[in-house]
Amino acid sequence: MSIVDNLRVIQERISAASLRAGRDPSEIRLVAVSKTQAAGAVNEAAESGQRLFGENYVQEFTAKATEVTEPVEWHFIGSLQSNKVKYIVGLVTTIHSVDRLSLAQEISRQWGRVGSCCDILLEVNLGGESTKGGATIDATLELTREIAKLPNLRIRGLMTIPPFFDDPEGARPYFRELKRLSGVISAAEIPGVEMAELSMGMSGDFEAAIEEGATLVRVGTAIFGKRG
Ligand SMILES: *Cc1c(COP(=O)(O)O)cnc(C)c1O
Questions:
Q1: 228 contacts: CB under 8 Å, gap ≥ 6
Q2: Does the pTM of the predicted model rise above 0.90?
Q3: Where are the domains of the chain?
Q4: Which among 37, 134, 154, 205 has the fewest CB atoms less than 10 Å away?
């Protein structure tokens, strides 16, 4: 199937999962994850109406962004080194993968230089896997308090990448846990912090994520096919 066909099928599945969960499909935004895909694939998706794309690798992303001719919005979703933040200022509206104060400080500094504000999500490592980024559950509330004091960024919610399961139901308890943690942080009423977004769910499990409250689903291979 073509990218356009895949996008249509994914949108239908998003709508169906939303309705099953008693949610309005417009609450959920599809982040088309285009890492390792050529700019042409992004342009093709954008021409068919997809506007939001997610990228993981700074160098690949910045090169690709210059070749994308359609008006698109980019989110950065991959692990990010502080010394690379300067390359994505002004290119992305949201960073999903903030998991430490030092990174948030650099985002704040770089967005301050251009006089604007970056939306960020705090990445939580719910599975406690050492191979993955993300703050621990226990550290997340305090990290939120510290980051919230910084100018030029806005904490908009949480993101997680659960451990891998063949069965999408395996990820569901992690999605629930992220939602619970979001409620805990929300209840702390930290000034400037809005737990409006839950970024969770990928090609294999986005429907379960939507049923558990996702507002941003990050889908790559189900749209673009296998990565090279
Ligand atoms: C690659 C990636 C995705 C997309 O994964 P698929 O299984 O291809 O849908 C989502 N989120 C993050 C953080 C990724 O790195």
A1: 36
A2: yes
A3: 3-224
A4: 154
Q: Rounded to the nearest whole angstrom, what is the distance from the C-alpha of residue 140 to the centroid of ligand 1? A: 22
Q: Measured from the CB, is residue 220 less than 6 Å from ligand 1? A: yes
Name the average pLDDT for the chain.
Answer: 97
Mean per-residue pLDDT, 135-148: 98
What is the CATH code for 3-224? Answer: 3.20.20.10
CA 213/CA 156 separation, integer angstroms:
15
Chain segment 174-222, per-residue pLDDT in tens: 999 999 999 999 999 999 999 999 999 999 999 999 999 999 999 999 9
Q: What is the DSSP string of 176-217?
A: HHHHHHHHHHHHTT-TT----EEE---TTTHHHHHHTT-SEE
Task: Point out the ligand 1 atom lying closest to the alpha carbon of residue 35.
Answer: 1
Q: Residue 194 in contact with residue 210, Cβ under 8 Å?
A: no
